[in-house]
Amino acid sequence: FGTAQYLLTTIAVGGLLIAVAHLHWQSALIMALGLAMSSDAIAISSLEEHAESASPQSRAVMAVVIYQCFMAIPVLAVIPLLTASPMRDTPVPTVLKALEVCAAIATVYLFSRYALPKILATAARKYGIEALTLIIIATIFAAAWLMDTVGLSNALGAFMVGMILSASVFAYQIKASVSSIKGLLLSVFFIAIGMSIDLKEVVGIGGELFYYLPTLFLIKVAVVILLGLGFRLGLRASVLSGLLLAPFDEIA
Question: How far is CA 113 from CA 147, 167, 170, in A?
Fold first, then answer.
């Protein structure tokens, strides 16, 4: 279900952008890969508020969210390759650049998988939860900086560290230590997004904004409803799943 939802939504959104907006296929694919992702924060919090964690729509939402978590890494990695233009003045990625990217990804993985757990064990044993929190935050910023240095998205580094640590013995301690600052960082993130919006540009877009935005929402909802019916979730669960998965993910 998660695989079909992401692939079909990407195809539908990309096709819309190519047919209506007349974008190049690379630009349309980049936008579609991001817009096809759904906000897990909105979907999961809504299910928890209505105590529907064991409902059919909850299983469908979790299937999509988990699949998109795994897809986030390859999507963030492939975007710089898709943005490479064949224009004469634009440098084409070389073998050395590819090796730098692979080395950066391998460094983050090996450090987070083997070195970081030992460091966290020492910090937790000798210095307490405060040192654990500082080490985790420092690692996340270092991984984000390393990915940004080689031309990848800094979110890729942070995501890799989080995914690897989720399978470690310190998973629950890490969740407890970062939960206190999660709300603050989330607020800063959304403030940064809000401040990056140029209201003059929004006004200049005019009618296109009110055309594309509802259309993209309808595409996401329609794909989920059709898949839900195909997977025999029932009409109500399919519609609720479509509405919960319609909001765009922050990665977009």
Answer: 17, 9, 12
Task: State how far the alpha carbon of 4 is from the alpha carbons of 37, 181, 220, 227, 230, in Å.
Answer: 12, 35, 12, 8, 11
> Cα(190)–Cα(197) distance, rounded to whole angstroms?
11
| Joined tokens for residue 76 | 């963030």
Please provide residue 55's backbone torsions phi and psi, each rounded to the nearest 5 degrees: -85, 165
C-beta neighbour count of 227 within 10 angstroms:
21
43 touches 221 (CB < 8 A): no
> What does the pLDDT profile of the chain (252 residues) look like in tens digits?
999 999 999 999 999 999 988 888 989 999 999 899 988 767 877 777 777 777 888 889 888 988 887 787 788 777 777 775 554 444 445 677 778 888 988 999 999 999 999 999 898 888 887 888 889 889 989 998 998 888 776 777 887 888 888 888 888 888 877 777 777 777 777 787 778 778 887 777 777 778 888 999 999 999 999 999 999 989 999 999 999 998 887 666
**Amino acid type, 122:** T
Enter the DSSP assignment of 168.
Answer: S
CA 9 – CA 132 distance, rounded (Å): 40
Query: Coil, helix or strand for 90?
Result: coil
Answer whether 0.90 is exceeded by the pTM.
no
